[in-house]
Amino acid sequence: MESSRMAFLGWVLAFLSGPSTGYPNGKVKEACSSMMPLHGHVPQKFPKHTAEVNVTQFKPGEHVKVTLSGPTFEGFFLQARDAENLEGAAIGSFVLADKKRSQLLTCGHVKNSAVSHTSKAKKTQVDAYWIAPQNSPKRIQFLVTVVEKYSIFWVKIPGPVISQPNTPILTTTVAANVTLPTSLTQVFNASECGTNKFCVRNPWSCDPKAEDCFFLSFRHDHPDSVMVEMSGPSEGYIAFALSDDQWMGGGDDAYLCISEDHHIDIKTASLVGRTYPELDSEDSLEEKSWRMADGLIQCSFRRKINLPAFQGRVNLDASYYIFLADGDVNEGGAVQKHDRQPLITDGKQNITGPPKDIGGSRSPFLIKIHGALMFVAWMTTVSIGAIVARFFKPVWSHSLLFGEEIWFQVHRGLMMMTVLLTSTSFVLPFLYRGGWSKEAGIHPYLGCTVMALAVFQPLMAGFRPPPQAPRRQGKGGEKVELPEW
Protein backbone atom coordinates (compact mmCIF):
# COMPACT_ATOMS: atom_id res chain seq x y z
CA MET A 1 0.00 0.00 0.00
CA GLU A 2 2.80 2.36 0.92
CA SER A 3 4.60 1.59 -2.36
CA SER A 4 1.43 2.37 -4.34
CA ARG A 5 1.12 5.77 -2.66
CA MET A 6 4.74 6.59 -3.44
CA ALA A 7 4.28 5.55 -7.09
CA PHE A 8 1.19 7.73 -7.42
CA LEU A 9 2.99 10.72 -5.84
CA GLY A 10 5.91 10.23 -8.20
CA TRP A 11 3.58 10.16 -11.20
CA VAL A 12 1.92 13.40 -10.10
CA LEU A 13 5.28 15.14 -9.61
CA ALA A 14 6.50 13.92 -12.99
CA PHE A 15 3.37 15.25 -14.67
CA LEU A 16 3.62 18.65 -13.02
CA SER A 17 7.28 19.04 -13.93
CA GLY A 18 6.92 17.94 -17.55
CA PRO A 19 8.10 19.89 -20.62
CA SER A 20 5.00 22.09 -20.63
CA THR A 21 6.38 24.12 -17.73
CA GLY A 22 6.85 27.77 -18.75
CA TYR A 23 9.42 30.34 -17.74
CA PRO A 24 7.64 33.30 -16.13
CA ASN A 25 11.00 34.60 -14.87
CA GLY A 26 12.47 34.75 -18.38
CA LYS A 27 15.32 32.27 -17.72
CA VAL A 28 14.98 30.58 -21.10
CA LYS A 29 18.54 29.52 -21.93
CA GLU A 30 17.21 26.13 -23.04
CA ALA A 31 15.50 27.94 -25.94
CA CYS A 32 18.59 29.81 -27.16
CA SER A 33 18.79 27.87 -30.42
CA SER A 34 15.14 27.16 -31.30
CA MET A 35 13.68 30.23 -29.54
CA MET A 36 10.70 27.96 -28.82
CA PRO A 37 8.91 28.28 -25.45
CA LEU A 38 8.46 24.92 -23.74
CA HIS A 39 4.73 25.43 -23.28
CA GLY A 40 3.50 22.29 -24.97
CA HIS A 41 1.49 24.28 -27.55
CA VAL A 42 1.86 24.99 -31.27
CA PRO A 43 3.08 28.52 -32.13
CA GLN A 44 0.75 30.95 -33.92
CA LYS A 45 1.33 31.71 -37.61
CA PHE A 46 0.56 35.38 -38.07
CA PRO A 47 2.54 37.80 -35.89
CA LYS A 48 0.89 40.84 -34.32
CA HIS A 49 4.09 42.29 -32.86
CA THR A 50 6.94 44.00 -34.66
CA ALA A 51 10.55 44.87 -33.95
CA GLU A 52 11.92 48.22 -35.12
CA VAL A 53 15.41 49.69 -35.22
CA ASN A 54 16.61 53.29 -35.37
CA VAL A 55 19.15 52.74 -38.18
CA THR A 56 19.46 50.77 -41.40
CA GLN A 57 23.28 50.53 -41.36
CA PHE A 58 25.79 49.85 -38.60
CA LYS A 59 29.51 49.68 -37.93
CA PRO A 60 31.31 47.40 -35.42
CA GLY A 61 31.08 48.83 -31.93
CA GLU A 62 27.98 50.96 -32.61
CA HIS A 63 24.78 50.76 -30.54
CA VAL A 64 21.51 50.00 -32.35
CA LYS A 65 18.22 50.64 -30.57
CA VAL A 66 15.74 47.78 -30.96
CA THR A 67 12.08 48.34 -30.02
CA LEU A 68 9.58 45.49 -29.66
CA SER A 69 5.96 46.66 -29.67
CA GLY A 70 2.45 45.41 -30.27
CA PRO A 71 -0.66 44.23 -28.40
CA THR A 72 -0.23 43.36 -24.73
CA PHE A 73 2.21 40.49 -24.16
CA GLU A 74 3.79 38.73 -21.17
CA GLY A 75 7.08 37.30 -22.38
CA PHE A 76 9.63 37.77 -25.14
CA PHE A 77 13.03 36.52 -26.29
CA LEU A 78 15.19 38.72 -28.56
CA GLN A 79 18.35 37.85 -30.51
CA ALA A 80 20.43 39.10 -33.44
CA ARG A 81 21.73 36.61 -36.02
CA ASP A 82 23.52 36.55 -39.34
CA ALA A 83 20.84 37.43 -41.93
CA GLU A 84 22.31 34.85 -44.30
CA ASN A 85 22.47 32.09 -41.66
CA LEU A 86 19.45 32.46 -39.42
CA GLU A 87 19.94 29.00 -37.93
CA GLY A 88 23.34 30.03 -36.62
CA ALA A 89 24.34 31.32 -33.19
CA ALA A 90 23.37 34.64 -31.66
CA ILE A 91 25.65 37.53 -32.60
CA GLY A 92 26.68 40.59 -30.62
CA SER A 93 25.55 41.65 -27.18
CA PHE A 94 22.79 43.78 -25.69
CA VAL A 95 22.50 46.58 -23.16
CA LEU A 96 19.23 46.97 -21.27
CA ALA A 97 17.02 50.06 -21.43
CA ASP A 98 14.70 48.90 -18.63
CA LYS A 99 16.17 46.50 -16.05
CA LYS A 100 12.80 46.02 -14.32
CA ARG A 101 11.10 44.47 -17.33
CA SER A 102 14.02 42.89 -19.23
CA GLN A 103 17.19 40.94 -18.49
CA LEU A 104 20.30 39.72 -20.33
CA LEU A 105 21.02 36.07 -21.10
CA THR A 106 24.06 34.25 -22.40
CA CYS A 107 23.39 32.04 -25.40
CA GLY A 108 26.17 29.69 -26.45
CA HIS A 109 29.48 31.30 -25.57
CA VAL A 110 28.37 34.88 -26.25
CA LYS A 111 27.65 36.84 -23.08
CA ASN A 112 24.54 39.06 -23.04
CA SER A 113 23.61 37.90 -26.53
CA ALA A 114 19.85 37.68 -25.80
CA VAL A 115 17.18 39.68 -23.98
CA SER A 116 14.11 38.25 -22.23
CA HIS A 117 11.39 39.26 -19.78
CA THR A 118 11.77 39.26 -16.00
CA SER A 119 8.14 38.50 -15.12
CA LYS A 120 4.67 37.91 -16.56
CA ALA A 121 3.78 41.57 -16.11
CA LYS A 122 1.77 42.94 -19.04
CA LYS A 123 3.68 45.13 -21.49
CA THR A 124 3.19 46.64 -24.94
CA GLN A 125 6.74 47.86 -25.66
CA VAL A 126 10.27 46.92 -24.70
CA ASP A 127 13.52 48.64 -25.73
CA ALA A 128 17.08 47.30 -25.79
CA TYR A 129 20.39 48.31 -27.38
CA TRP A 130 22.37 45.89 -29.52
CA ILE A 131 26.16 46.33 -29.70
CA ALA A 132 27.73 45.26 -32.99
CA PRO A 133 30.83 43.06 -32.45
CA GLN A 134 34.11 43.66 -34.28
CA ASN A 135 33.68 40.51 -36.39
CA SER A 136 30.07 41.30 -37.43
CA PRO A 137 28.74 39.70 -40.61
CA LYS A 138 27.70 42.01 -43.42
CA ARG A 139 24.00 41.76 -42.57
CA ILE A 140 22.22 41.27 -39.26
CA GLN A 141 18.58 40.32 -38.72
CA PHE A 142 16.79 40.53 -35.38
CA LEU A 143 14.53 37.64 -34.36
CA VAL A 144 12.03 37.72 -31.54
CA THR A 145 9.69 35.26 -29.84
CA VAL A 146 6.63 36.83 -28.21
CA VAL A 147 4.32 35.20 -25.65
CA GLU A 148 0.90 36.82 -25.41
CA LYS A 149 -0.17 34.26 -22.82
CA TYR A 150 0.72 30.68 -21.98
CA SER A 151 -0.99 29.04 -24.97
CA ILE A 152 -0.60 31.88 -27.49
CA PHE A 153 2.88 32.75 -28.74
CA TRP A 154 4.86 33.42 -31.92
CA VAL A 155 8.32 32.00 -32.58
CA LYS A 156 11.18 33.64 -34.49
CA ILE A 157 9.23 36.62 -35.74
CA PRO A 158 11.56 38.10 -38.39
CA GLY A 159 12.62 41.61 -37.53
CA PRO A 160 14.58 44.31 -39.36
CA VAL A 161 17.66 43.59 -41.43
CA ILE A 162 20.53 46.05 -41.04
CA SER A 163 23.81 45.96 -42.91
CA GLN A 164 27.28 47.39 -42.82
CA PRO A 165 28.06 50.28 -45.22
CA ASN A 166 28.67 49.42 -48.89
CA THR A 167 27.00 46.03 -48.54
CA PRO A 168 25.27 44.93 -51.79
CA ILE A 169 21.48 45.10 -51.76
CA LEU A 170 19.64 41.84 -51.18
CA THR A 171 17.08 41.00 -53.87
CA THR A 172 14.78 39.28 -51.37
CA THR A 173 14.26 39.19 -47.65
CA VAL A 174 15.45 35.97 -46.02
CA ALA A 175 12.75 34.31 -43.91
CA ALA A 176 13.50 33.30 -40.34
CA ASN A 177 11.17 30.33 -40.41
CA VAL A 178 9.56 28.90 -43.50
CA THR A 179 6.28 28.33 -41.64
CA LEU A 180 5.96 32.03 -40.81
CA PRO A 181 5.45 35.01 -43.10
CA THR A 182 8.50 37.07 -43.97
CA SER A 183 8.54 40.35 -42.10
CA LEU A 184 9.09 43.84 -43.35
CA THR A 185 12.40 45.43 -42.47
CA GLN A 186 10.61 48.52 -41.13
CA VAL A 187 7.09 49.27 -39.91
CA PHE A 188 5.23 51.63 -42.21
CA ASN A 189 4.38 55.08 -40.92
CA ALA A 190 3.11 58.35 -42.34
CA SER A 191 5.33 60.69 -40.33
CA GLU A 192 7.59 61.45 -43.30
CA CYS A 193 4.84 61.96 -45.87
CA GLY A 194 5.38 65.22 -47.72
CA THR A 195 8.93 65.62 -46.40
CA ASN A 196 10.90 62.50 -47.29
CA LYS A 197 8.22 60.37 -48.93
CA PHE A 198 5.64 60.83 -51.69
CA CYS A 199 2.41 59.43 -50.18
CA VAL A 200 -1.05 58.57 -51.45
CA ARG A 201 -3.49 57.91 -48.61
CA ASN A 202 -7.14 56.87 -48.33
CA PRO A 203 -8.54 58.35 -46.20
CA TRP A 204 -6.21 61.32 -46.26
CA SER A 205 -5.43 60.89 -42.53
CA CYS A 206 -4.43 57.23 -42.97
CA ASP A 207 -1.57 56.05 -40.72
CA PRO A 208 -0.65 52.43 -41.61
CA LYS A 209 1.10 52.00 -38.27
CA ALA A 210 -2.09 52.59 -36.29
CA GLU A 211 -5.06 51.67 -38.50
CA ASP A 212 -6.21 49.47 -41.38
CA CYS A 213 -6.37 51.90 -44.29
CA PHE A 214 -4.95 52.24 -47.79
CA PHE A 215 -1.45 53.67 -47.94
CA LEU A 216 1.11 53.99 -50.74
CA SER A 217 4.46 55.72 -50.46
CA PHE A 218 7.54 56.26 -52.63
CA ARG A 219 10.89 57.16 -51.11
CA HIS A 220 13.49 58.42 -53.59
CA ASP A 221 16.41 57.55 -51.31
CA HIS A 222 18.82 56.42 -54.02
CA PRO A 223 19.80 58.16 -57.27
CA ASP A 224 18.83 55.14 -59.37
CA SER A 225 15.90 53.60 -57.48
CA VAL A 226 12.75 54.18 -55.42
CA MET A 227 11.58 52.35 -52.30
CA VAL A 228 7.86 51.56 -52.44
CA GLU A 229 5.58 50.78 -49.47
CA MET A 230 1.99 49.63 -49.89
CA SER A 231 -0.56 48.72 -47.22
CA GLY A 232 -4.28 47.98 -47.16
CA PRO A 233 -7.00 45.77 -45.66
CA SER A 234 -7.63 42.83 -47.99
CA GLU A 235 -7.85 39.03 -47.95
CA GLY A 236 -6.87 38.80 -51.62
CA TYR A 237 -4.57 41.45 -53.05
CA ILE A 238 -3.70 45.12 -53.01
CA ALA A 239 -2.20 46.85 -56.04
CA PHE A 240 -1.28 50.15 -57.61
CA ALA A 241 -0.77 51.17 -61.21
CA LEU A 242 0.80 54.07 -63.10
CA SER A 243 -1.25 55.34 -66.05
CA ASP A 244 -1.19 58.12 -68.63
CA ASP A 245 -4.96 58.59 -68.29
CA GLN A 246 -7.72 58.19 -65.73
CA TRP A 247 -8.94 54.75 -66.73
CA MET A 248 -7.27 51.37 -66.56
CA GLY A 249 -5.92 49.68 -69.63
CA GLY A 250 -3.70 50.78 -72.46
CA GLY A 251 -0.58 49.14 -71.07
CA ASP A 252 -0.63 50.61 -67.56
CA ASP A 253 2.26 49.59 -65.31
CA ALA A 254 0.87 47.62 -62.31
CA TYR A 255 2.35 46.26 -59.07
CA LEU A 256 0.47 43.67 -57.02
CA CYS A 257 0.86 42.13 -53.56
CA ILE A 258 -1.10 38.87 -53.75
CA SER A 259 -2.06 36.69 -50.78
CA GLU A 260 -1.85 32.95 -51.39
CA ASP A 261 -1.46 30.12 -48.85
CA HIS A 262 -0.39 32.46 -46.05
CA HIS A 263 2.27 33.96 -48.28
CA ILE A 264 2.50 37.22 -50.23
CA ASP A 265 3.70 37.22 -53.83
CA ILE A 266 4.91 40.61 -55.06
CA LYS A 267 4.42 40.77 -58.83
CA THR A 268 4.44 43.20 -61.73
CA ALA A 269 2.00 43.23 -64.64
CA SER A 270 0.84 45.25 -67.62
CA LEU A 271 -2.85 46.13 -67.84
CA VAL A 272 -4.33 45.93 -71.31
CA GLY A 273 -7.99 46.90 -71.62
CA ARG A 274 -10.28 45.54 -68.89
CA THR A 275 -8.88 42.00 -69.00
CA TYR A 276 -7.33 40.33 -65.97
CA PRO A 277 -3.66 41.29 -65.56
CA GLU A 278 -1.09 38.85 -66.88
CA LEU A 279 1.65 38.62 -64.26
CA ASP A 280 5.20 39.01 -65.55
CA SER A 281 7.46 35.98 -65.43
CA GLU A 282 10.60 38.08 -65.01
CA ASP A 283 11.26 39.84 -61.72
CA SER A 284 12.30 43.49 -61.96
CA LEU A 285 12.00 44.29 -58.24
CA GLU A 286 14.55 44.21 -55.41
CA GLU A 287 14.47 44.12 -51.60
CA LYS A 288 11.02 42.56 -51.57
CA SER A 289 9.45 42.16 -48.14
CA TRP A 290 5.97 41.67 -46.75
CA ARG A 291 3.73 41.13 -43.75
CA MET A 292 0.18 39.79 -43.43
CA ALA A 293 -1.91 39.77 -40.26
CA ASP A 294 -5.57 40.21 -39.29
CA GLY A 295 -6.73 40.90 -42.83
CA LEU A 296 -4.05 43.52 -43.48
CA ILE A 297 -1.53 43.17 -46.32
CA GLN A 298 1.68 45.19 -46.26
CA CYS A 299 4.52 44.88 -48.75
CA SER A 300 7.55 46.85 -49.83
CA PHE A 301 10.08 46.63 -52.62
CA ARG A 302 12.69 48.65 -54.46
CA ARG A 303 12.38 49.49 -58.14
CA LYS A 304 14.97 51.07 -60.39
CA ILE A 305 13.81 54.33 -61.97
CA ASN A 306 14.68 53.15 -65.49
CA LEU A 307 14.21 49.54 -66.60
CA PRO A 308 14.83 49.44 -70.36
CA ALA A 309 15.30 45.67 -70.35
CA PHE A 310 11.84 44.93 -68.91
CA GLN A 311 8.86 45.18 -71.24
CA GLY A 312 5.93 47.15 -69.82
CA ARG A 313 7.79 48.91 -66.99
CA VAL A 314 7.56 52.70 -67.29
CA ASN A 315 10.24 55.20 -66.29
CA LEU A 316 9.52 56.58 -62.84
CA ASP A 317 10.90 60.04 -63.55
CA ALA A 318 7.77 61.02 -65.53
CA SER A 319 4.26 62.02 -64.38
CA TYR A 320 1.38 59.55 -64.17
CA TYR A 321 -2.06 59.10 -62.70
CA ILE A 322 -1.78 56.72 -59.74
CA PHE A 323 -4.39 54.00 -59.18
CA LEU A 324 -4.79 52.13 -55.89
CA ALA A 325 -7.01 49.03 -55.88
CA ASP A 326 -7.84 45.86 -53.92
CA GLY A 327 -9.74 42.67 -54.65
CA ASP A 328 -9.96 38.90 -54.32
CA VAL A 329 -8.00 35.97 -55.72
CA ASN A 330 -9.50 32.62 -56.68
CA GLU A 331 -8.44 29.23 -55.34
CA GLY A 332 -5.69 29.01 -57.94
CA GLY A 333 -4.24 32.36 -56.90
CA ALA A 334 -5.46 34.23 -60.00
CA VAL A 335 -6.28 37.90 -59.52
CA GLN A 336 -9.96 38.79 -59.82
CA LYS A 337 -11.63 42.11 -60.65
CA HIS A 338 -11.23 44.70 -57.92
CA ASP A 339 -14.10 44.93 -55.45
CA ARG A 340 -14.82 48.62 -56.08
CA GLN A 341 -13.76 51.60 -58.13
CA PRO A 342 -9.99 52.13 -57.70
CA LEU A 343 -8.67 55.20 -55.97
CA ILE A 344 -7.34 57.65 -58.60
CA THR A 345 -5.23 60.75 -58.00
CA ASP A 346 -6.77 64.02 -59.16
CA GLY A 347 -3.88 64.77 -61.53
CA LYS A 348 -0.66 63.32 -62.89
CA GLN A 349 2.09 63.01 -60.30
CA ASN A 350 5.87 62.61 -60.49
CA ILE A 351 6.81 60.26 -57.64
CA THR A 352 10.52 61.05 -58.00
CA GLY A 353 9.90 64.80 -57.74
CA PRO A 354 9.37 66.85 -54.58
CA PRO A 355 7.66 64.75 -51.86
CA LYS A 356 3.91 65.26 -51.53
CA ASP A 357 1.18 64.02 -49.25
CA ILE A 358 -1.97 63.60 -51.33
CA GLY A 359 -5.24 61.71 -51.45
CA GLY A 360 -7.44 60.69 -54.32
CA SER A 361 -10.96 59.75 -55.22
CA ARG A 362 -12.68 56.48 -56.01
CA SER A 363 -15.15 58.43 -58.14
CA PRO A 364 -13.77 60.84 -60.78
CA PHE A 365 -15.10 64.39 -60.65
CA LEU A 366 -17.17 64.11 -63.84
CA ILE A 367 -18.77 60.89 -62.59
CA LYS A 368 -19.62 62.56 -59.28
CA ILE A 369 -21.33 65.42 -61.14
CA HIS A 370 -23.14 62.86 -63.30
CA GLY A 371 -24.55 61.11 -60.23
CA ALA A 372 -25.46 64.36 -58.49
CA LEU A 373 -27.36 65.73 -61.48
CA MET A 374 -29.28 62.48 -61.99
CA PHE A 375 -30.19 62.44 -58.29
CA VAL A 376 -31.46 66.02 -58.38
CA ALA A 377 -33.40 65.41 -61.61
CA TRP A 378 -35.16 62.17 -60.71
CA MET A 379 -35.47 62.50 -56.95
CA THR A 380 -36.25 66.21 -56.72
CA THR A 381 -37.46 68.17 -59.77
CA VAL A 382 -39.54 65.43 -61.40
CA SER A 383 -41.09 64.41 -58.06
CA ILE A 384 -42.03 67.98 -57.12
CA GLY A 385 -43.35 68.57 -60.63
CA ALA A 386 -45.67 65.54 -60.40
CA ILE A 387 -46.87 66.57 -56.93
CA VAL A 388 -47.70 70.10 -58.15
CA ALA A 389 -49.72 68.76 -61.08
CA ARG A 390 -51.58 66.27 -58.89
CA PHE A 391 -52.40 68.29 -55.79
CA PHE A 392 -51.99 72.02 -56.52
CA LYS A 393 -54.13 72.32 -59.65
CA PRO A 394 -57.37 73.06 -57.72
CA VAL A 395 -55.53 75.31 -55.28
CA TRP A 396 -54.04 77.58 -57.97
CA SER A 397 -56.79 77.10 -60.58
CA HIS A 398 -57.52 80.84 -60.95
CA SER A 399 -54.02 82.23 -60.32
CA LEU A 400 -52.12 83.19 -63.45
CA LEU A 401 -48.41 83.65 -64.20
CA PHE A 402 -47.41 85.02 -67.59
CA GLY A 403 -50.86 84.20 -68.95
CA GLU A 404 -50.96 80.61 -67.70
CA GLU A 405 -52.13 79.05 -64.46
CA ILE A 406 -49.40 79.01 -61.80
CA TRP A 407 -49.58 75.26 -61.16
CA PHE A 408 -49.00 74.61 -64.85
CA GLN A 409 -46.09 77.05 -65.12
CA VAL A 410 -44.40 75.50 -62.05
CA HIS A 411 -45.06 71.96 -63.31
CA ARG A 412 -43.73 72.73 -66.79
CA GLY A 413 -40.67 74.54 -65.43
CA LEU A 414 -39.72 71.62 -63.17
CA MET A 415 -40.22 69.09 -65.97
CA MET A 416 -38.07 71.15 -68.35
CA MET A 417 -35.42 71.35 -65.61
CA THR A 418 -35.55 67.55 -65.33
CA VAL A 419 -34.88 67.14 -69.04
CA LEU A 420 -32.04 69.69 -68.92
CA LEU A 421 -30.38 68.04 -65.92
CA THR A 422 -30.76 64.56 -67.43
CA SER A 423 -29.29 65.70 -70.76
CA THR A 424 -26.29 67.32 -69.07
CA SER A 425 -25.73 64.30 -66.86
CA PHE A 426 -26.06 61.97 -69.85
CA VAL A 427 -23.17 63.64 -71.68
CA LEU A 428 -20.65 63.59 -68.78
CA PRO A 429 -19.79 59.84 -68.79
CA PHE A 430 -19.09 60.02 -72.52
CA LEU A 431 -16.77 62.96 -71.95
CA TYR A 432 -14.99 61.06 -69.17
CA ARG A 433 -14.61 57.82 -71.09
CA GLY A 434 -14.06 59.42 -74.48
CA GLY A 435 -16.86 57.39 -76.00
CA TRP A 436 -18.99 54.33 -75.33
CA SER A 437 -17.79 51.98 -72.53
CA LYS A 438 -18.20 48.31 -73.38
CA GLU A 439 -17.06 47.28 -69.91
CA ALA A 440 -19.64 49.28 -67.93
CA GLY A 441 -22.26 46.54 -68.09
CA ILE A 442 -25.97 47.39 -68.33
CA HIS A 443 -25.63 50.88 -66.86
CA PRO A 444 -25.05 52.72 -70.20
CA TYR A 445 -28.10 51.00 -71.74
CA LEU A 446 -30.29 52.03 -68.82
CA GLY A 447 -28.94 55.56 -69.11
CA CYS A 448 -29.80 55.73 -72.79
CA THR A 449 -33.32 54.44 -72.04
CA VAL A 450 -33.84 57.10 -69.36
CA MET A 451 -32.56 59.81 -71.70
CA ALA A 452 -34.86 58.68 -74.50
CA LEU A 453 -37.92 58.67 -72.21
CA ALA A 454 -36.97 62.08 -70.81
CA VAL A 455 -36.96 63.53 -74.33
CA PHE A 456 -40.00 61.55 -75.52
CA GLN A 457 -42.23 62.81 -72.70
CA PRO A 458 -42.18 66.55 -73.64
CA LEU A 459 -42.57 65.60 -77.30
CA MET A 460 -45.77 63.76 -76.41
CA ALA A 461 -46.95 66.80 -74.43
CA GLY A 462 -46.29 69.00 -77.45
CA PHE A 463 -48.60 66.92 -79.66
CA ARG A 464 -51.36 66.69 -77.05
CA PRO A 465 -54.58 68.53 -78.09
CA PRO A 466 -55.54 71.57 -75.99
CA PRO A 467 -58.16 71.06 -73.24
CA GLN A 468 -60.98 72.50 -75.39
CA ALA A 469 -60.30 70.22 -78.37
CA PRO A 470 -63.08 67.66 -79.06
CA ARG A 471 -60.54 64.87 -79.54
CA ARG A 472 -59.24 65.28 -75.97
CA GLN A 473 -61.64 63.00 -74.12
CA GLY A 474 -61.42 60.67 -71.16
CA LYS A 475 -63.24 57.47 -70.44
CA GLY A 476 -66.95 57.46 -71.23
CA GLY A 477 -66.63 60.36 -73.66
CA GLU A 478 -66.17 62.92 -70.87
CA LYS A 479 -63.66 65.64 -71.49
CA VAL A 480 -60.81 65.76 -69.00
CA GLU A 481 -58.19 68.35 -68.33
CA LEU A 482 -54.72 66.92 -67.99
CA PRO A 483 -51.41 68.63 -67.35
CA GLU A 484 -49.85 69.83 -70.54
CA TRP A 485 -46.67 71.50 -71.61
From TrEMBL:
PROSITE patterns: CYTOCHROME_B561, DOMON, REELIN
Cofactor: heme b
Location in or out of the cell: Membrane
Residue span(s) of domain Cytochrome b561: 332-485
Membrane topology: Multi-pass membrane protein
Signal peptide: 1-22
InterPro entries: Cyt_b561/ferric_Rdtase_TM, DOMON_domain, Ferric-chelate_Red/DefProt, Reeler_dom, Reeler_sf
Alphabetical list of SMART domains matching this protein: B561 (SM00665), DoH (SM00664)
DOMON domain segment(s): 212-327
Record bears the keyword Acyltransferase: no
CDD domains for this protein: Cyt_b561_FRRS1_like, DOMON_SDR_2_like, Reeler
Region (Disordered): 465-485
Stretches that traverse the bilayer: 372-392, 413-432, 444-463
Transport recorded as keyword: yes
Keywords: Electron transport, Glycoprotein, Iron, Membrane, Signal, Transmembrane, Transmembrane helix, Transport
Feature: compositional bias, Basic and acidic residues: 475-485
Pfam families hit by this protein: DOMON (PF03351), Reeler (PF02014)
Family per record: Belongs to the FRRS1 family.
Protein name: Ferric-chelate reductase 1 isoform X2
Organism per entry: Pogona vitticeps (central bearded dragon)
Gene symbol of the encoding locus: FRRS1
